Amino acid sequence: MRISFLLLLSTTIPILGLAQNPAPKGQLHGNFAMMWQQYNEDSLIGARVPEAKSALNSYGNITYNYGDFTAGIRFESYQDALLGYPKHFYGTGIGSRYARYNNDNIDITVGNYYEQFGNGMILRSYWEPTLGIDNALDGMRVLWKPYNGIYIKGIYGHQRYEFDSRLINGQGIVRGVDSEINLTELVPSIDTLGKLKITIGGSFVSKYEAGETFEENGEVFRLPKNVGAWAGRAKVEYGDFQINGEYVSKINDPNADNGFIYKKGEALLVNLGYSKKGLGINLNGKMVDNMAFRSSRSALLFELPINYLPSITKQHTYNLAATLYPYATVINGESGMSAELYYTFKKKSPLGGKYGTNISLNFAAVNSLDTTQLSGMDGLVYGYERQSIGLGSTKYVRDFNVELKKKISSDWYMGLTYYYFEFNTLATPVTQDFKGIVYADIFVGELQYKFNAKNTARIELQNLQTDQDKGDWATVVAEYTYSPNWTISLIDQYNYGNNNTEARVHYLYGAVAYSKGSNRISVGYGKRREGIFCIGGVCRAVPASNGIEITLSSSF
Hints:
Elements: H1 5-19, E1 27-39, E2 54-66, E3 69-78, E4 89-102, E5 106-113, E6 116-117, E7 123-124, E8 127-128, E9 133-134, E10 137-147, E11 150-164, E12 167-182, H2 183-186, E13 196-208, E14 213-216, E15 219-222, E16 226-238, E17 241-250, E18 265-276, E19 279-289, H3 319-323, E20 333-345, E21 357-373, H4 376-382, E22 384-407, E23 412-424, E24 437-450, E25 455-466, E26 473-482, E27 486-494, E28 506-516, E29 519-528, E30 531-535, E31 538-542, E32 545-555
Parallel strand pairs: 4-11
Antiparallel strand pairs: 1-2, 1-32, 2-3, 3-4, 4-5, 5-10, 6-7, 8-9, 10-11, 11-12, 12-13, 13-16, 14-15, 16-17, 17-18, 18-19, 19-20, 20-21, 21-22, 22-23, 23-24, 24-25, 25-26, 26-27, 27-28, 28-29, 29-32, 30-31
């Protein structure tokens, strides 16, 4: 955007002030966050120390609202970025700025914005600072509600690529339109019993990037300048039942992710659900085939993703299950299914006891695609042919878990969880020490005691057993809370089953946090093991570290 944000803000506020009678009062809001880390040498765990010895990630959002007008700006600072953070983050400056006008029927944004079409499989721009993901669009977005039950979105812009004391966008242009119709709102008479909700939607997204040519085996190939993708989705809810699904198709898009083949991409996501008080059932199916979609054909990993492919496996929260073998979607191709059951045994029943008992079961299976490799020129151009949407011959992951949560008394709470994993480390390379399938059992016990209204203690005991990779692990987590201000926590991870006895190290880390209102500060010190950090099925590798960490957050 060539229009100065401050100029736009200074010229728009007086105009809006004259248009409103009486003039609405402006409101200023914001939030700030910082994480500073000091690094120490630790050869036992392979901790690396940068030349500066420390690193800082920080940002501050400031938002001004005046009637129907909103403007925002985000300052960012990386001095340097924390170890393990994706590249393309340096210096201090403005990383985001926008102006927005919104009333009952129209919503217009210029500058940076985030948007998602459907489930995100065709378009999702979002910001996740803890992972280092920011693929904000920079241009213009229009949301329009022409009639009750009809919603239309239009987007046009470049994607954020990197930050070097200022926002730097990628060269590719992304444009798209999405429409959604809520038939129940549009035609209320179709819901005669008050239980039916029907929503249908469709999207089209395309990217433009200057074309190139390359030569292979004596053949000259031209890379397409414009690549389009379309999607259709539907959701039907009736009482306690629901079904929703989305299908995405993308034309030939040779890129670094797929080895520059010209095969079209496809994805299918289906969910069946039943939910009532005390019972929930979900069945999911997913197929992804060659659906890497970026505004730069040479980009990889976190760089310039246009879409998002949700993982079908459960996102675990306990340490060993969440960080040792977390599964994320294989964007070039996978097929899978999952099932979940949630049930609450009623209070005063034989299994429910005085307070009731919650139990959940989850199973997910993901394999490679059912494909045949093509030969000759067809193999060079298209790579492979998919035979069905079913499971292929290569196992990627099996994830079974059962969880029991129970309040034992007014003071005591208990949780028990069991996990069984079969994890292909070639499909998702979360470890450098083993190349094959890991078979693992994980047992977790959690106990919490409430001394009084202010004092609570909690402990977790975790154990992972496997004959592969680094062997068995144990983790202890202890936490004490003095509400509403203080929290003290301690975690010890121990790789007691490692065949290399020198690698049997206690990763001990302690932290103290103080909160008051919207302000929070935390100070921690100790060892962090090398592992994987995931949010919403998107993961990044975190290197081993030893040192002190200080985090600060505040909002107003």
